[in-house]
Amino acid sequence: MKVKVGNKIYDGNEEPVMVILTDQDKENIKNMHPDCTKYCVYPESWGEQEEVSAWMNGEYEAEEWPWDDEEPERDLSKYHLVCTCGACPEQYDVYEGEKRVAYFRLRHGYFYAACPWVGGEVVYDAYPDGDGCFTADEQEFFLTEALNAVYDYYEEEKEDE
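The chain above was modelled as a monomer; its predicted structure follows.
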């Protein structure tokens, strides 16, 4: 399998690639014509159908991609997670230094991150495959996404001060 993001193609035979499909994506792929080998999802604001088709065929390259803007590296290492329950539910207390800053919980296939603590604002939620605990191949992804949301929450809080 190959995955194209912007102008870069990632080959699953050379490096790990993963595609996370929604139920609608799976339905669309299931209904594809047998001769079709490409499936594309793009933001509505990205371009006209002709541009998308040209991009899919390797005939179009934008000078600048919206996602090419270099974001400063986030230092997520300032957070540490303490697993308080390994399964049913899988849950974590999240600390920055000695201060507890978030709570993560996965139960019945629903994962969420709340800040600053249980009952606080849900800053991230998702529906992983794991029911009461993550599957081995999804844990790092969802925990990292939740940590990014915690980071954003506290950055926005700083801006409001």
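The first strand starts at residue 2 and ends at 5.
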